[in-house]
Design brief:
alpha+beta, Rossmann fold, 477 residues, homodimer, 3 domains, five-stranded mixed β-sheet, Translation Initiation Factor IF3, BirA Bifunctional Protein, domain 2, globular
Amino acid sequence: MPLEHDKKTEFAEWYSEVVKKAEIVDNRTPVKGANVLLPNGYGIWENIQKILDRELKATGHNNYYFPMFIPEELLNQEAEHFSGFAPEVAWITHVGNRKLERKVGLRPTSEAIMYSMFSLWIRAHTDLPLKVNQWCNIVRWDTKETKVLLRDREFLWHEGHTAHATYEEAEEQVKESMRIYEKLFDDLALSYIILKRPKHDTFPGADYSVAYDAPLPDGRVLQIGTTHNLGQNFSKAFDVKFQKPDGDHDYVYQTSYGISTRIIAAILSFHGDNKGALIPPKVALTQVIIIPIYFKNKHEIVKEAANKVLETLKNAGIRARADLRDNYTSGWKFNQYELLGVPLRLEIGPRDIEKNQVVLVRRDNGEKITVPQDQLVKKVKDTLDAIEETLRQKAWKRLEESISEAKTFEEIEKIYNEKRGIIRTNWCGNPECADVLKEKLSVEIRGTKLNEEEEPFHSCVVCGKEAKQVVYVASAY
Amino acid sequence: MPLEHDKKTEFAEWYSEVVKKAEIVDNRTPVKGANVLLPNGYGIWENIQKILDRELKATGHNNYYFPMFIPEELLNQEAEHFSGFAPEVAWITHVGNRKLERKVGLRPTSEAIMYSMFSLWIRAHTDLPLKVNQWCNIVRWDTKETKVLLRDREFLWHEGHTAHATYEEAEEQVKESMRIYEKLFDDLALSYIILKRPKHDTFPGADYSVAYDAPLPDGRVLQIGTTHNLGQNFSKAFDVKFQKPDGDHDYVYQTSYGISTRIIAAILSFHGDNKGALIPPKVALTQVIIIPIYFKNKHEIVKEAANKVLETLKNAGIRARADLRDNYTSGWKFNQYELLGVPLRLEIGPRDIEKNQVVLVRRDNGEKITVPQDQLVKKVKDTLDAIEETLRQKAWKRLEESISEAKTFEEIEKIYNEKRGIIRTNWCGNPECADVLKEKLSVEIRGTKLNEEEEPFHSCVVCGKEAKQVVYVASAY
């Protein structure tokens, strides 16, 4: 039952296979790019929601729900924003058999609808900061080929939106959102490089965008989260003004940030192997799968013992499940739960019962650990932590190995052909040079280091003119 | 700051006012019927989600997320279902500037999209029961006048969908969903009558529908939850078959059930008064609001004491908040949190600190309770429970008072003009008689008692012919 495709040599095929066989997503749906998140996939999202929601509330965010419907004139109010999203907006034009007087768009993101309300809510500095969070579905009807979780036409996300009295406070908010995100990524054992996107790749309407690029095993990067300092661009477009303590009026300073179900693709790609998925303990629907080892005439005793272990783990707040079915062999079950990515297996058979012990088997390295029953909860928790730590170290090692340096176009070309990865190089700042990279090598200038002025070490990698920045270049999903 | 409109004499105006001033919903949005759920309203929904989600998981439901997009041919597959929902379906016809080859509907409910997947997933009796739950947004573009939370074009809900091997198991599932719902309604201190809807008001495609009608203060009823036995209607339409242990094949037996954000309207209508909302403790965003009573030169001591109380309550798992602002008077704050519906107020001033006590004030009856600090947590919990119990008793008393009996059309007319409410009467079973009631009095035959055959006590209230059923009649939202 191991996967048919090899993760190293056939990553794209492996990914499609693992998403399906690990029961993360079913894409046999009638509209391409709008798929079913199955319990093993939705469970990851639910646990991510819990982690983020707790942190967002602890930092003063309140949850709201805004309409999905955005009329064209509203989306159009910030020109850059509109031109960035308009090609992917799905429009409702009819209800039943009737044509609507004006078409209504489905949110590709909620800046427009939210900020039109902010302009009604914000009057004075005492109304600030306003920190809004929303959990919802998003529609971006990409006309390019869809790719499960990586490029979906409907997906789920959280979006944070804040309004502040000063630019400095907005800057602090960007940092706060980054702290929240980095804590989550740490729980997911993901590695990433933090980049300030170049102007031509900034979120439409933002002053600047900070993005997290995670290195996937095929050498391409995946953006797993972003946070934007919107400055006063939207507040001017949507007339969101406030009165300052001195009586003067000013437009608010805004930020927005988001993480979507796309991050599940990073989790699968980072941690899975040729046996299947491997879901990090903090977000796994099932953290521990209990498999009774049946011997003839001992069924009932083993079942009872397995149920007792299950109760003990559940009472300790561990997401455990027991597969007590006897029409499947233990071997079949071992393979099945390895495929599903359950991080820890617990085996218990007649001999273990006699010895008052259980056997733990780690999904990441297959290590078997015999544990006395009276240390059960502690050892399970420690082992889950150890699995997470192993995944984390491997993830950061991959990032390190994925970064190369190039001075010339030939060097980039060579690296790209050999292993892709993230390439540190020099850029003159001309978008035309970025276009050349994109056209000739399908790589993008992903951005510059945040809060760290790096001195160019060569001339522009494309045109050879004087370089202005050290940039990081990669092929991206 | 009490409300301008009187709940008893101007219920509709009172409702619109309380929804707005208690910061439940903001409807100043660009598309009518698609509103913003504000934190004080969304918080109710989040807490309802937690209660329901826990129960659904404990009874073996798994959470999924299905696409919002339903192509016409799929929605059309069960004819009755389609004709029931088609007039309210919003259709996407364009993306960006391009026309789609086939229009795509937005889910008015998920039977069609889910069951098309069930037909891929279910093969054998070992795949059953399948118990699916989904949290999502729903679009029903009613052309009638929209009414905040009561008739929204976009709303949030949970929908449960199950498939079983036998009709009996489906019947058991209907009962399970009812137990889960009734536990929730109990937590919300709502009263209701349980009715089996007449054939002409059954969910389109269902064998039968069971609905919970809650008596609102204006004498009309509001459906707060429904559960449907779908029989094999959908499984035949969507070809959801399974192999039985004996090798034969059969179509699965299905159920579905749902509760939406509409229930927030019932909560507000039941418990609110002329001072504002009153949110039942189990679902209130803030259960206890702490108001420091400032005296000159004592600010810091009082603030510190208030913060200490806040910590104690939070650590005990109580959703408490302190309003420490000193640019608002205590009196203003009292009114404000009464308006918002926080069920319990905690006051603490210099004299209380000296005496090592706090003062609790119940939102429901204004009762003041002095509590020694060392009994704080217990007394707060007990008082929240007492508030809930008081609301519950009032709710059931209202149901009792709202039920009348009528033998003749004149009697119904009289009751309707005096007080509306729920009227117990007799019906011949002819839908034309139901139409007469609807046209002449705007009342509907809501259904019959479930699992209780009631003997007619008079002839049909409309046509005077022999009655077949005792039915309950009401004006409904």
